[in-house]
Every structure is written in C-alpha cells, then in structure tokens.
Amino acid sequence: MATTGTAGSSGTRTAAWHNWAGNVSATPARVVTPASVGELQEAVRRAAGDGLKVKAVGTGHSFTAAAATDGVLIRPQALAGIQAIDRTAGTVTVAAGTVLKDLNLALAKEGLSLTNMGDIMEQTVSGATSTGTHGTGRDSASLATQIRGLELVTADGRLLACSEKENPEVFAAARLGIGALGVVTSLTFAVEPLFFLTAREEPMGFDRVTAEFDQHHAENEHFEFYWFPHTGNCNTKRNNRSQGPAAPPGAVSAWVEDELLSNGLFQAVNSFGRAVPAAIPSIARIASRALSARTYTDIPYKVFTSPRRVRFVEMEYALPRERVVEALRELKAVVDRSDLRISFPVEVRTAPADDITLSTASGRESAYIAVHMYKGTPYQAYFTAAERIFTEYGGRPHWGKVHTRDAEYFSRVYPRFGEFTALRDRLDPDRVFGNDYLRRVLGD
Prior knowledge:
Strand order of the largest sheet: 17-14-16-15-19-20-18-21
Shape: globular
Distance between the termini: 32 Å
Number of strands: 21
C-alpha cells in the first residue's frame, strides 16, 4: 500500500494539510495514497481496526472542513483516469481521483462532453460531486445529477455498487454524500456528443438585470450574472447551444479579460484593497466598468469554466428561484448602508429542481447567491449579514462553502434530511467517516 506519514510511537504526526483557500487545516495521523481499490478497502479496514476516522480529500477546493481529519486521510490521486466509455448508453466511467480538467480534455478528444459544468475544473470528480458543485442552468443541473452509477467503499471495507437499479436508496443519497456514507472509488456520468456553446458577456445595470431576471432565465439555457458591490453595475453571461463553428476570443481579448482583468490585475487590486479598505468602493466602480461586451463560441468546457487564481473565501446559498431577486436587493441594501468593504463581485446562478436527497436544489427550482472575500481579509461580518438574509428565505448552504448552519436547521429546509441520516446510521453506525463538520451538519 502506498502510504506516507504514518504516526510513530512517539506520537509525531504528519505535516498539516491545508485547503486551497487556507482557511481550513488538519493534521492526520497518517496519509494513504492507495494505488488500487483493494488498497483503499484495506486502508479503511485498518483505520477502523485502529479506532481512527477516515476522510478522503481531493484538491482541497472546499471552504468547509468536510475533509478534515486527525485520523486517516485518503488521497485518491492514483485512482484516476477513464475506465470505460459506453457510446450506446451515453456514459463514461471514471476513477474518483480524476481531476475535472483531465476528464474534460479526455472527453473532448473522444468527441464527448458533460452536459453542464461548474465554473472551475480543478477539483476531483468525487470531491466536486460529493459537495454539490454546480454551474448555472435553466434545464441542466449540477454535476451530481449527471451521475448514472457509482461505487463506494463502506465503513466495513465492502465495495458497494449503486445506481437506479442497484442499491437505489444509496444511489439517491451518495451522489452527493458529503463524505458521510463512504469513500467513492468511481463514478459513471451521462455524456453526450461534443457540442458548441455561444457565450454572450454583457455589462448591465443592477436594476435592469434584477428586473429582467426571470426573462433572462427563461430565454437562455445558461444565465448568470455578477454584481459589483458598492456599485449599480453587473456583468451578465448567457450561454446557449449553437451550430458552431468555434470562434473563441482572440488571443489579445482572452488575455486581457481572463488573465489581466480576472487574475493578474484583479490580484493586485484585491491586495491593495486589503491594505487600504477605504479605496475599495472607488476601485469597484472602476473595475466594474473595465469589462466590455464580447461574444464567442467554443466547446463546452472552454465556455463554462475559466481560470481562478486569485484566492478567496466563499459562502453560497441556494434559495427558491422566485425569491432570489428579493434577497439580492436586500443584500445590496445592507452593503450600501454599512461600513463593509467588498472587493469581490457577488455571483448569481440557477438550477432546476432535482431528486438527490441533500442536493441544494432537491425538490425545488433554485437560484444561488455566492459572496466572496479575498484571502486574508476578515469575512465574518459580511458573511454573517448575508447568511441572515439567506436563511430568512429558507436558503440551503453549499456543502463545501462557508456557513454556520447545523443539523437542526437542515432538518427544516431538507424534507428528506431524515432519509439521509437514517441511511448513514445503517452504512456507518460507528461514524468511521465522521468528523467535526459532519457532526455539526448531520448530527451524531
């Protein structure tokens, strides 16, 4: 078994693990990088025998402590790659440690694509689906809804295959299991022939975009927008399928928009704003006017995703779609009358209702509001104010992003919450896969 950093008799520990944002850390007793599913099963059995908890971690892009443990940390990076493509069924089976970027590149070479994606592709497939990663879509939903089958190692070391026909009650929950039901080893996704998307990015005033939100949602397959706090300015993005051909942004335009404005200059602006908060409103007014309208066409992952190298901390809540504009206007009013200084735009996206037990869109058409703060900047006051608004609307926080909710709250906003916790009691009665985060959000 490929194992590193085992705790010795002196009680020394492995080096601390940190997530991408740097707001979560943990020091596991040992780290295991299994080279096969069999080695992973043995690692779980051994941990349980030693009385240690087990957590799997991907690339650390969650902002919560969902993967933190002082027990055994499983790194599935060696369990990577496409295992099978079934063109008749329209599916691809992929190992759990595969990074979404690698999957997208491999699928494109095969003339295939996922139907919808999030806005970055640095996560592992299992980490992204287990926490509910999503993009925006009128009809197409999160990554987890595109799963047609999965395998996971349970607390007793068994390998359990799940689909709508095989262990369907586990499948209903484990597509988005927050690491509470087992360690996912492979996922089978629905895929389709590669297609083109035409993206239209356009600045728009806050009052206009909120007044026309329902119209934009109805008229576009994928609609999202960003509001720049301290301003009345937004940037909208509409993605719709087209016949092609590919017409990507020009090299200069792409560099200016995606590298200079969204990463390089944005990094410098945020660093300056952290040092001089009073300057942030003026910077926001300038930055919100820097982006210009542009239209381009390309294959899906090149349109859905973009590089995000400026590090931040994020909170995101799913609200009933019909209430999102009202909630966003409240958030704007709070920011406008406060001393808060917000250098990151607020992101708004949508998703149709789905049937996954703990999906943020479970049973209801949803819209998401995501708030961000630059890494190293105090975020508690802003996030507390935002969360107060979101919870008034029965909001459901993203499982991988900062929030303060607990099991009592979730039992009220998720009609099938008890179904999930009962399944957890059956699959992991001794809480081999437990940690402090799961104790808070699922109860003990």
